[in-house]
Amino acid sequence: MNTIVTFGEIMGRIAAPDNLRLRQTRQFDMTYAGAEASVAASICNFGGNARYVTALPKHALAEATIDAVRSVGVDTQYVLRTDKGRLGLYFLETGANQRPSNVIYDRADSAIAITPVEAYDWENIFKGASWLHLSGITPALSKNAAEATLYAAKKAKETGASVSIDLNFRGKLWDWDSSKSARELAQETMRKILPYIDVVIGNEEDCYDVLGIRAGNTDVHTGKLDTSRYPDVARQVVEQFPNVKKVAITLRESYSASHNNWGAMLYDTATDKPFFAPLDLNNKYQSYEIKNIVDRVGGGDSFAGGLVFALTTKGLSEPQIAVKYAVAASCLKHSIKGDFNYSTRSEVESLMQGSGSGRVVR
């Protein structure tokens, strides 16, 4: 079984318990997470092999982050330990009903942000690897992190590995060049990386913020998506970057913080066909309705993890099956607290086959 490599920052996640507001809270729940680490965790929980690469300081909290990733079977042998830099943090306030969730970042001068590209063991990182997964979050941290992300993509392609990236625009993070707005900096940086990408993952907001592409008459804040426009969005991505083989767009309809509809489209360049999931009995797109969200943070990462696992796994790699698997995996993640998706392959496949009642399994 070939190894899937992910590269990016892992942080301490400091969350207000239950649905308390941050200003109400005196005791917090501490876990560890990051987009690329979450993808690696998903892949291992599904039964695949994943290797996670990052930079972390030399102290006990950093050891705890490595323990969290290693506990689900992720290979951490190429995690770089540094004498400088800190562990990044983010603070989470989980919303409910009409009150949205809120994230506060504390990531300045983290180890991965200040580590130069040449510090990583690139010659060995991709040994035995068939795939590299990246996100648009890590290059938002600093010039160093952006250069490392670009180099990782180039090096992976040199070794013959496929490369995927989740666009993941985070406007709060893109501030390392004060001469440009967050969107300008993101577009300039990501356009250097995208020529080395095989699979692009994003949502309608990411496609606009990073690539300037809109999804027609769509307004994510009203909970209404015009899904007929998304194949054209994917084709515009491929028109700008002909190297891209597949474009996945997640389709989230947000009615409230606690009630979302969830689905996705996977566009296959080779056949010029879009594949939607989930489907009803007439093979028409019908989103999953998630009415009691436990934790939506990490939902997109769980989709990316499911998609990469499916595309690299015999029996799941056909576009329709792959997107169906990824959507079912990320639907289940909405029921799990924390960033990591602890769903198993059998649980995902059960939901794919229509077992979504939530009845007790005895």
Please describe what this structure looks like.
The strands form 3 sheets. Strands 1, 4, 9, 10, 11, 12, 13, 14 and 15 form a 9-stranded mixed beta sheet that branches. 31% of the residues lie in helices and 22% in strands. The relative contact order is 0.13. By secondary structure, it is α/β, with parallel strands linked by helices. It has one domain (3-352): UDP-N-acetylmuramoyl-L-alanine:D-glutamate ligase. It is globular. The protein is built from 11 helices and 15 strands. It has helices at residues 35-45, 60-70, 111-114, 122-125, 143-158, 182-193, 204-211, 230-240, 299-311, 319-333, 345-352, and strands spanning 3-7, 11-15, 29-33, 49-53, 55-57, 80-82, 89-93, 102-106, 129-135, 162-166, 199-202, 246-254, 260-268, 273-277, 288-290.
How would you summarize this macromolecular structure in one to three sentences?
The chain is of the alpha/beta class and 362 residues long.
